[in-house]
Amino acid sequence: MGSHVSKQVERRKSIQTEKKVLFDMKQSNGSEYPGSDYHPSDRKNWMSGLNPDKVQINQIVWPGTHDSATNKIGFPFVTRPFAQCQSLSIYQQLVTGARVLDIRVQEDRRVCHGILVTYSVDIVIEHVKKFLSETHSEVIILEIRTEFGHDDPPDFDKYLEDQLGEYLIQQDDQVFGKKISELLPKRVICVWKPRKSPQPKAGGLLWNSGHLKDNWIDTDLPSTKFENNMKHLGELQPVTSRKFFYRVENTVTPQADNPILCVKPVTDRIRPYARVFISQCFSQNIVDRLQIFSTDFIDGDFVDACAGLTKARSEGKA
């Protein structure tokens, strides 16, 4: 019992120390960078506002959401706080400016996060199509994967093609160097990551797992995650030399050996430091590697941070 208490005391000290590291970094180095003062007048159409004839796909800093479809997961006030990573619906996230969705499914096509489940993926598709019908030049990366420990939904590739076919951007490495306007009216890059079923084939309507990569660091320590994100990003080639999307997740995750297991208070240890991360990318000369930047509980400021850097890139300022 005593050793357990001692361990928890040390854990709390580590967390407080790491929170202070990020706070001090923000105080001393700031969170400004080329484009940081930009705020889209219409986040629902922020890509359109940057001129689709001018912006290349590999210039976009894509604001994404982590565990996107968890706004209604589990039971309110009981299990939901342990698995909810977003409070907004899929449609609301897209209207707020999110352009990358992270959807986890199980065999019956219901969205899940670990053992907790929520609505059918049909709801996700419905919200995506509603948003697409109301906009004209916004491009979305829709990543759908079978959650760890679950089986793939049967014939799920056919389901996605049937539901989104008119919007799907064909898997093609040339897409990265194209301007948004060159892809229209197609609007969705759909990455399907099954666990056991065959991966999508080259040239098809769906993209395979090799086209969206990340280095997930499972920790609740904020500066540890921040520094590891920076390290892995620095090991990559610039976006202009890559034929895959790379995601950095500005999140930390509750750990079983820590008494605080609710997502919100844990992920809030790092969530306010998204702009600091971008600023540090400039300081370390690796901002040309940043591409997808994801968060829990997305808000307008996070979107503005990504849109501003995208604007700076399109103007040759970053």
Automatic annotation (TrEMBL):
It comes from the Eukaryota. Residues 7-23 have a biased composition (Basic and acidic residues). InterPro entries: PI-PLC_domain (IPR051057), PLC-like_Pdiesterase_TIM-brl (IPR017946), PLipase_C_PInositol-sp_X_dom (IPR000909). PROSITE patterns: PIPLC_X_DOMAIN. Residues 51-187 form the Phosphatidylinositol-specific phospholipase C X domain. It holds the Pfam family PI-PLC-X. Residues 1-40 are annotated as: Disordered. SMART domains: PLCXc. PANTHER family: PTHR13593, SI:DKEY-266F7.9. This is PLC-like phosphodiesterases superfamily protein. It comes from Forsythia ovata. The lineage of its organism: Eukaryota, Viridiplantae, Streptophyta, Embryophyta, Tracheophyta.
